[in-house]
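Final report, Chapter 2: Outcomes

The project's central promise was a pipeline that accepts a single protein chain and returns its three-dimensional structure in a standardized token representation, suitable for archiving and comparison. That pipeline is now operational. To close this chapter, we reproduce one record exactly as it appears in the project archive, with the input sequence first and the structure output second.
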Amino acid sequence: MQLNVARLCLDCQEIHEEDRCPVCTSEAFAFMTRWVKIDAPPTRVSPQEKSPRRSSKVDSYTKLLNPQPQRSAAARWLRKGGIVVAVGYLARWGWQIANAQDRTSKEGLKNDRS
């Protein structure tokens, strides 16, 4: 039973939490908090209010677990650009091979007809 809802029956001195006393059905009661003081409930800390010390610890552990340094934006752009250029050259090379095979097959058909 929560202390903030506990009631003391003034007739039979039973502690309950209903509107009427379950023993004598009296409606005369007083809340227990009149005599017993309760502390304020603990407040929860939201994730935005975490201490800076906590976030620095998390950053330290993250760096330990992921030892690769973060690349700069320019390095990422160069890497992605290099990949695009390599894919372009591979596509061109594949296109040239396909055209060469197509030409040889056409020349073979011309020789067969002659």
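Archive annotation: The mean pLDDT is 82.
This record, like all others produced under the grant, will remain available to the consortium after the project formally closes.
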